[in-house]
Write a structure and sequence with these properties.
19% helix; 5-stranded mixed β-sheet; 78 residues; alpha+beta; 1 helix
């Protein structure tokens, strides 16, 4: 169901990087580097048309992208 999937987060976990759906404890996948986890998480967010959050080592969100139906699309720049 596009737009209904839970957002995808890439978060630090025990020295690795985990791809986790919002609200879940269990990781979808775990990777040695943040870049590997991002390469796994972004396509999942795109496929499910949901939000993608990339967290830093401190756990704070450092990047966010929306792949769903944006309720506030940018104005046409004509």
């Amino acid at each position: 169901m596009p737009g209904k999937a839970k957002p995808v987060h890439v978060v630090p976990r025990d020295g690795d990087w985990a791809v986790v759906r919002e609200g879940n404890q269990r990781a979808s996948s775990v990777h040695a580097t943040q870049a590997e986890a991002e390469r796994a998480g972004r396509p999942a967010a795109r496929a499910d048309q949901t939000e993608f959050y990339l967290h830093g080592r401190d756990g704070q969100i450092r990047e966010r992208d929306s792949y769903g139906n944006d309720p506030n699309p940018p104005r046409d720049a004509r």
